[in-house]
Amino acid sequence: MPRTNTKADKALSKMVKSQQPEQTFTLQQISDKTGLTAERIRQIERAALRKMQGELKTWLTKEGFTEYL
What we know:
By secondary structure, this protein is mostly helical. The protein has one domain (6-14, 24-68). The chain has three helices and no strands. The relative contact order is 0.10.
């Protein structure tokens, strides 16, 4: 089971809810709010992107859109 950081999860949720349209956050801003290092935030971001890419690839294959792979 993946480990979770409740303090970081709550801080990130609060940031997202208060986010303005087209506003982005730097790794350092997220780090400051969550208590995690900027490097750890980058690692989590990369893992999430890889997971989404894998799920998208699976869906595209299943639906027959292999020309987009």
